[in-house]
Amino acid sequence: xxxxxxxxxxxxxxxxxxxxxxxxxxxxxxxIIVLHGLMxxxxxxxxxxxxxxxxxxxxxxxxxxxxxxxxLKTNVKSFANYLSDFIEFKGFSEVILLGNSLGGHIGLYHxxxxxxxxxxxxxxxxxxxxxxxxxxxxxxxxxxEVIKKKAQDVFYDPAVATKEIVDDVYATVNDRVKLVxxxxxxxxxxxxxxxxxxxxxxxxxxxxxxxNDNVTPPNVAKEFHDLLPDSDLFWIxxxxxxxxxxxxxxxxxxxxxxxTERGF
Length: 264
Fold this sequence. Notes:
Layout: H1 3-11, E1 16-18, E2 21-26, E3 30-35, H2 46-53, E4 57-62, H3 76-90, E5 95-100, H4 102-113, E6 118-124, H5 144-152, H6 163-173, H7 176-191, E7 205-210, H8 218-227, E8 231-236, H9 243-246, H10 248-262
Parallel strand pairs: 3-4, 3-5, 5-6, 6-7, 7-8
Antiparallel strand pairs: 1-2, 2-4
């Protein structure tokens, strides 16, 4: 798995900072805007970035203001509006949205409100229907081993949870302001449940899911597929909550095949 190589490759590139936005951008072509999760870094999508920027797409990964907005605005709807403003700022007329976990939820909510600019939607391990695993379980947040176990449980192969990933999660949950905002986002995710909205959303949607996802279990993917009128569901075996990290080659193959078949 070339994750470490790719991370080293992309760490040499700096984020663009323009106006109120900080983002990574590479490639030319149809824009794919990548939406990271609650505790997911931009480097989680290194393989996606390299593959699709080499295959005729412009990859854009904005740093979402998860911990920088005021507490009152720390919610799914505000992040979806922020995304709309970013798309306007970049001057994109149509985009493909790709989101993991909370990023998938933001993509879904944005599509609900601004469907005219979303050519296609891709979700993997997305929240929006099932949020019991989000933001909770940090009562022992000062215990590094407890946090390490929680980080490992995100993946089928616990070795994917590198020390760097565990350290980042540990630092986040032990930052009081970030923890308060993490819990606010978890409550917002429950409040902004999408079950009633999905049947009215006709944007073509690719659902790629780890068959061993413990955070958003497989039945969640099936429910998304059942509720979204124009969706296709793909499984990746021996895979947890972050398919694009754990099985990057298979994830890219599935997504590229779907985009090609749909004419995107």
